[in-house]
Specification:
Strand order of the largest sheet: 3-2-6-7
Largest sheet: 4 strands, parallel
Number of helices: 6
Helix content: 25-40%
Shape: globular
Strand content: 15-25%
Radius of gyration: 15 Å
Order of helices and strands: EEHHHEEEHEHEH
Distance between the termini: 51 Å
Structural class: alpha/beta
Length: 166
């Protein structure tokens, strides 16, 4: 049985310079009502380490850290049917209004896609020559089996963009 699921509202504000987009929350994230809630997902470990912030399990502190560093979060998919948490199980998806969101937040300078599904969907939504850089990052999901070190190295591009601001 496929369940219809919906993404969370975007976490973004007028100071956001980077938007990180996933596909749609997994089962654990939906249950906890938190982005990247699965304990095996490396998103928070990577981001907090990149930002030189102490690791915390407190979700509200994690969100404050993202805001402090001008990073927004959202998902490419608004709703879909899916059994379990696998992107490959996604069916009948409806897209989030990414272009409209970006129009409302002109400080965003780049989009980082957490994994291939979000990247492919975003390319379809915005086109390959969109006005902002769109970078494909290795998924932080435990199912994407490259090492933490390799994921961390790739995700350093976020830090490079942040440190490049004037």
């Amino acid at each position: 049985m496929q369940n219809r699921i919906s993404s969370f509202p975007p976490l973004i504000d007028d100071q956001s310079e980077i938007l990180i987009l996933g596909s749609i929350p997994g089962v654990k994230s939906l249950e906890m009502q938190q982005y990247y809630a699965h304990p095996q997902n490396k998103f928070w470990k990577i981001i907090l380490e990149l930002l030189n912030e102490e690791f915390t399990g407190d979700y509200s502190k994690r969100i404050e850290i993202l805001k402090k560093h001008h990073i927004g979060l959202w998902d490419v998919i608004d709703s879909c049917e899916r059994k379990g948490s696998l992107d490959s199980e996604i069916k009948n998806e409806e897209a989030n209004q990414i272009a409209e969101l970006l129009e409302g937040y002109p400080n965003v300078k780049a989009i980082f896609c957490n994994g291939g599904k979000s990247y492919k969907n975003l390319q379809k939504l915005l086109g390959k020559n969109y006005k902002l850089p769109i970078l494909l990052m290795p998924s932080t999901s435990p199912l994407h089996t490259i090492s933490f070190e390799k994921k961390f190295e790739e995700w350093k591009k976020v830090l490079e963009l942040l440190s490049g601001r004037g």
